[in-house]
Amino acid sequence: LSIAWARAMRNVHTILADLAAGSNGFIEWNLILDSIGGPNHLGNLCDSPVLAVPHRALDAEKDFPAQLGFEHAGHPFGEVHGDNKTREELNAEGSPAKYLDLGVVVQPMYYYVGHITRFIRPGSRAVHGLVGASAGDPEVRTFRPKGQRVAGGGINDLARNGIEVTLWPCEGSTRQEWLLNEQKQLQVFGHDWLGAPTTSCLAKKPDKDFDGLLLTTCNIDENKSGLFEVVPVEGKQSKVHIVSSNNKKSCLVVQPLRNNGGAYGPRGGAQVNVGSCDHPWAGWGFDSSTGEITSSVFDALGEVCLTTGWPFLQVGAFDTSATTAANGAVIVTNEAGEHANYV
Question: Dihedral angle at the C-alpha atoms of 107, 113, 117, 122, nearest 10 degrees?
Fold first, then answer.
């Protein structure tokens, strides 16, 4: 069930990010699929808010098959979790028995999508909204209490190859915790949804499609990760350049989004790239005790931290005055395994 909730939160992140970026709407491609994510003539199995399991209906014929004749994909991801579970066990895990009795599984994604569509009606528009800081003391982070050096928020499930590296307001979480390891790589650690440990490193050059740096393998022999040195900036206290060991004139630089972050604003997802060390946006703060790499490029709005993917705590704000009696609505989602202290 925890994996189902994680998939649901990932879907909500996509919806909120797309709307913040300027999309006029979001199409949930499949509202209902069979128990393995089909049918699909290409075998491109997907996820959906509702799964059809007619063989679990109370009025199903005794020998009704778990997989219908039109489904030819088999079980590419292993046996279906629910097929070996009783009605009561599935109900206890969060798949309501009252829907199972009708032959459908209502997944957590359904409730997330339902929550958004209930309050963000057609005619609403995204407005600026961003979790900017923790509530109260400026030394406190959203997931890290004052005086604590250990990152909070729980396991970082975005420490994976191919994940974008971006800049967001500092929340003191494991998604913003970096290690400059002995090989001079900037490394992050985490676990995947099944609990297997993961680790990735900052790439040495931008992805041609994303146009910014991604996470990649830490295997030195594959020569995909960057090698960096932290060098103090002369005349600027606590500022450093993160210099490429391969090219001493190249440093990590902030790369603002072309749409200025959309409804999130410039601090919401700016990219990171490699550029000239003389660039005004090449200055960073690096706290090896917390693993935070910070930038004050948007200083008037607040500092930002180097982030794997996106922060645990996200928000979408909307002007709904044209659609309802209420003037606005705010959707807040917390992907962390801990409570959040935020404003």
Answer: -130
Query: Is 160 within 8 Å of 200 (Cβ atoms)?
Result: yes
List average pLDDT for each run of 10 residues in the chain, which is 343 residues long: 84 94 89 87 84 92 82 76 88 90 93 92 93 72 84 93 96 96 97 92 96 97 96 89 89 94 94 95 95 91 94 94 86 89 79
Contact 8, 109 (CB under 8 A): yes
Q: What is the DSSP string of 168-200?
A: EE---BGGG--EE-TTS-EEEEEE-TTS-EEEE
Alpha carbon 176 to its chain centroid, in Å, reads: 12
Q: Which two tokens stand for residue 223?
A: 């020569």
pLDDT value of residue 176: 97
Give the strand pairing for 270-276 and 165-169. Answer: antiparallel
Decide: helix, strand or coil at residue 18: helix
Closest listed residue to residue 39, CA positions, set 9, 7, 60, 67 = 67
CA atoms of 179 and 171, how far apart (whole Å): 17
Residue 210 exposure: Cα atoms within 13 Å on the Cβ side: 20
Q: What is the 3-state secondary structure (H, E, C) of 245-304?
A: CCCCCEEEEEECCCCCCHHHCCCCCEEEEEEECCCCCCCEEEECCCCEEEECCCCCCCCE
**Cβ neighbours, 10 Å, residue 137:** 11
From residue 84, how far is each of 38, 79, 90, 97, 143 by CA, in Å?
20, 9, 10, 15, 38
Which residue has tokens 């790499």? 293
Whole-angstrom CA distances from 44 to 1, 28, 40, 73, 94 are 23, 16, 6, 9, 26
Among 244, 183, 170, 250, residue whose Cα is nearest residue 217? 183
Q: Which residue has the tokens 């703060």?
A: 285
Query: For residues 149 and 335, what is the distance between their CA atoms, to the nearest angstrom?
Result: 21
What is the structure's pLDDT at 183? 96
Helix, strand counts (H, E) of the chain: 4, 18
pLDDT of residue 147: 78
The SS3 call for residue 92 is: helix
